Amino acid sequence: MALKNDYLIGVLETVKKRNAGEPEFIQAVSEVLESLEPVVERRPDLVEAGVIDRLVEPERQIIFRVPWVDDNGKTQVNRGFRVQYNSAIGPYKGGLRLHPSVYIGIIKFLGFEQIFKNSLTTLPMGGGKGGSDFDPKGKSDGEVMRFCQSFMTELYRHIGPDCDVPAGDIGTGAREIGYMFGQYKRLQNEFSGVLTGKGLTFGGSLARTEATGFGLCYFTNEMLKANGKSFEGKTVVISGSGNVAIYATQKATELGAKVVALSDSNGYIYDENGIDLAAVKQLKEVERKRIKEYVTTHPNATYTEGCSGIWSIPCDIALPCATQNEINKASAELLVKNGCFAVSEGANMPSTPEAIEVYLSNGILYGPAKAANAGGVATSGLEMSQNSARLSWTFEEVDAKLQDIMKSIFKSCDEAAKEYGLEGNYMAGANIAGFLKVAEAMKAQGCV
Ligand code: NDP
Q: In whole angstroms, what is the distance from residue 110 CA to residue 127 CA?
């Protein structure tokens, strides 16, 4: 879909000129600007206040050297990033991605998306994101610790519990957050909720580990219910086999579905009996092995090289939970052809714009990432509340709050879509509802 509004066309032109060579960032901005066309028609005051011109430019971008010594005594150098994107409604908040593909364009796209996602949670959190091109895969615990300590030795001066609160993302799990938290505490001589996703013995929230995957299924369940459908008896394909994929598999199964496939960046497994989640948790969370090892203990299952083939498996519901742009037009068409009726996104921006066109033009129920995967950051927000109050809630309390938040996110997306004449387009609804709250705050705070 091409932009029609002259003002928005101008904004996008500037973004393209300023951020040449950052296709993921331009893709994320384009999608939001397209959704905002009906809003700028109705709200000239927001245009007048320059809200959108300011929104597309991060408040601050920090890039730094991360030197560390490997197990052979050799110096290694990585690049670290933190983009403090928007603080209109709360402290910057967003995860840290550790993956060799990380560069400033990836961090900016994720930070931009995070603004709207955090707004949708109803909690007071601004948008930010960070990370490094460091690859934790194949590194020893000692190497990961030395990297994390070096990373935090620069980052600590830019963050704080009332300023910027990072969390996990691809490659950053409980181990990495633990090492970073230890180094922050040592440098600041302060025990505070500066990071979320912490271990349960030092301020972490129960249910944070499960939150993104569980939240994805709670949101999807609302979307299905609103359209007279459910998870019960449905076949589900989930990509990835990391944090989000594992807990999405658990909750989808609890809700009555059968998950038949999972993947990693090398290939995918198919188990027609339904994935044995205990085996996957042992492989991925304990042994840190590749997903193909699953077939050695489950000979009835198959492993296929190449991760994109997973979308050729017939399913009713697809939950992409690996990475950006993992479903292209051809994969989306295959899903439709094989009878898939819902796609809901655990990963950030996993569908290309062409894939989204295929969903919308074929009446597929589409749960966009910034709404569907917001359960992770919402529970991080709940971790911040518990840290500030110096108390901890039970698993059931946090899970109940998460369910309420995901229901309210679905409601906001649904209502905003209806209000702007786009009923059933939850992507437009998420972008509009997320935007309006931030925009009102930016307008009220003046040109800053
Ligand atoms: P993990 O590191 O735990 O797992 C990532 C999974 O995705 C792994 O199976 C990994 O395979 C696969 N993957 C990563 N990069 C690629 C790639 N380029 N191609 C194919 N597969 C890939 O990360 P999470 O589960 O935490 O994150 C998954 C997605 O969910 C990301 O998009 C993240 O931004 C998003 N997300 C995560 C949240 C959270 O709370 N963790 C919150 C909201 C969104 P391999 O091991 O081969 O790399």
A: 9
Q: Scan for tokens 């709670």, then name that residue.
A: 218
At 219 the three-state DSSP class reads helix
Q: Determine the distance separating the centroid of ligand 1 and the alpha carbon of 256, expressed in angstroms.
A: 24
Q: Which of 97, 243, 251, 308 to mutate to test the pocket of ligand 1 (most atoms within 8 A of CB)?
A: 243
Ligand 1 centroid distance, CA of 397 (Å) = 27
Superfamily of domain 1-57+425-448: Glutamate Dehydrogenase, chain A, domain 3 (1.10.285.10)
Average pLDDT over residues 201-219: 98
User: Domain 60-191's class?
Assistant: alpha beta
Residue type, 249: T
129, 198, 251, 437: which is the annotated catalytic residue?
Answer: 129
Q: CA 61 to CA 93: how far, in whole Å?
A: 14
Q: How far apart are CA 349 and CA 327, in angstroms?
A: 9
Q: How far apart are CA 253 and CA 394, in angstroms?
A: 23
What is the model's pLDDT at position 253? 98
State the Cα–Cα distance between residues 293 and 267, nearest whole angstrom.
Answer: 11
Q: Tell me how far apart the alpha carbons of residues 259 and 343 are, in angstroms, rounded to a whole number.
A: 14
Write out pLDDT tens, residues 81-130.
999 999 999 999 999 999 999 999 999 999 999 999 999 999 999 999 99
pLDDT digits (tens, 9 = 90+) for 112-124: 999 999 999 999 9
CA of 213 to the centre of ligand 1 (A): 11
**Rounded (5°) CA angle 269-273-278:** 70
Question: At residue 431, does pLDDT exceed 80?
Answer: yes
The top-level CATH class assigned to 210-363 is alpha beta
Q: Are 250 and 227 in contact (CB under 8 A)?
A: no
pTM for this entry: 0.97
276-300: average pLDDT? 97
pLDDT over threshold 80, residue 1: no
Catalytic status, residue 229:
no
